[in-house]
Amino acid sequence: xxxxxxxxxxxxxxxxxxxxxxxxxxxxxxxxxxxxxxxxxxxxxxxxxxxxxxxxxxxxxxxxxxxxxxxxxxxxxxxxxxxxxxxxxxxxxxxxxxxxxxxxxxxxxxxxxxxxxxxxxxxxxxxxxxxxxxxxxxxxxxxxxxxxxxxxxxxxxxxxxxxxxxxxxxxxxxxxxxxxxxxxxxxxxxxxxxxxxxxxxxxxxxxxxxxxxxxxxxxxxxxxxxxxxxxxxxxxxxxxxxxxxxxxxxxxxxxxxxxxxxxxxxxxxxxxxxxxxxxxxxxxxxxxxxxxxxxxxxxxxxxxxxxxxxxxxxxxxxxxxxxxxxxxxxxxxxxxxxxxxxxxxxxxxxxxxxxxxxxxxxxxxxxxxxxxxxxxxxxxxxxxxxxxxxxxxxxxxxxxxxxxxxxxxxxxxxxxxxxxxxxxxxxxxxxxxxxxxxxxxxxxxxxxxxxxxxxxxxxxxxxxxxxxxxx
Length: 471
Ligand code: FAD
Ligand code: EGU
Fold this sequence. Notes:
This protein is an alpha/beta fold. The protein is built from 16 helices and 19 strands. The protein has helices at 4-9, 21-32, 63-71, 75-80, 114-126, 178-181, 244-249, 253-263, 267-271, 273-282, 319-336, 341-373, 376-392, 400-406, 411-446, 451-470, and strands at 13-17, 36-40, 58-61, 83-85, 87-91, 97-101, 109-113, 131-134, 138-142, 149-152, 158-161, 165-168, 187-202, 215-221, 224-230, 236-243, 286-294, 297-298, 302-304. Strand 10 and strand 11 (158-161) form a beta hairpin. Helix 2 (21-32) packs parallel to helix 11 (319-336) and helix 8 (253-263) packs across helix 10 (273-282). The radius of gyration is 27 Å and the shape is globular. The structure holds flavin-adenine dinucleotide (FAD) and ligand EGU. It is an enzyme of class 1 (oxidoreductase).
């Protein structure tokens, strides 16, 4: 028999499956608490690999993500290598550029390099003596009854590992999650959107950024949209979002140029026709998936975080930020429940599911809204209205993106508040309209206009119109 004292003092072993952004950060969180952490990543160590394949080159890092980095002492290091974006720059079809600030001076988001961020996080995790990194370990399967995991190596060998807790951070197509799907009362939904995305590089011109660097550049064209984020090497990464069926229609270099001439003419000289054609055909368009599930845990043995728990479409710039916030939320619950997994895991599901589902819905809603009727005029108009109301009533009307991007307001609370604000705004508009009609009628009744004067002025108007026509 094991003595209860030795059992108490033995530090538990936590397996973090996936060494992407959320997995590497999570390894830091668990290591900081003193757990023995084993990180398993299917790829080779990206810090050694020469070619890094993977999704999107840069990401928008905002408040939630920064707070999580701060918890493990990494905020400054990452922020130093990020490029602040204080505003969006809206590119109209005629080439006009209009900046719309994100907020006040201190309210900006950061463009960060995914590969660099991942590398820094892995290095940070490794500096804890109680972490062990296992690259080239692809989780093949695990047994939800026994907790035994099977990993496949590149040389064809297999390894079996058992730990006290499995933390699934293995992305949108999570292998950890597969075991959840076999269980009763597990809710799961996944939706592929009709759009794909493609990345194009805008190189520096004469050694300088081809466009203003401290902006999130946006070309809103309803079903087509392009977004560009600045990189430290003075390039921009442009991401083109477009329905797959339209990607498929463009099959020759000439058609690429024709398409850009029609929808993004200002970018052709900036990207360069050759680069544009080369980048366009280099890789096929990538798919985007939204995944929601519930619960996020199995007993006291396994928990999902990041894209493994909630892949969201990128139309709020929150996927990584939400995944990073998962780590803080879990950490706070670990404090509350004294690291007792049997209490922590259900509480994490209870608290976090509504918020992750809320951001998944918001991102999907924004995708549908942008695709349906967001051209540059509409985008500018909506953001102006948001910002003006916020300026005059900063305590009452807070734009949704502000709550999402610059605060840690729980996502589901932000949505609730947004609905409430919309009601207030609509009532305000209705009241002003009713007031105008009533007020106008009252004034008309009190001071009835002299009918003769009206007719005379009508005659004058007619004369003027005739004069205009004969000019
Ligand atoms: P991933 O980054 O997918 O990492 C999963 C890791 O697990 C990988 O390293 C993978 O190799 C490993 N793995 C997979 N399977 C196994 C296995 N069986 N065994 C072992 N390891 C395994 N988010 C933002 O916050 N801001 C943005 O601006 C933003 N822009 C985006 C733009 C696009 C076009 C896209 C597609 C996404 C964007 N996101 C953004 C979302 C962001 O990329 C993800 O939310 C984030 O990468 C999730 O991190 P993760 O660690 O959970 O998953
Ligand atoms: C998409 C792809 C502008 C990086 C949503 C805003 C995004 C990002 C917006 C990608 C948009 C859309 C917001 C931020 C950010 C805006 C936001 C979207 C970063 C509502 C690399 N979105 N993104 N909203 O407000 O809150 O500027 O690929 F075009 S950052 Cl779609 Cl704040």
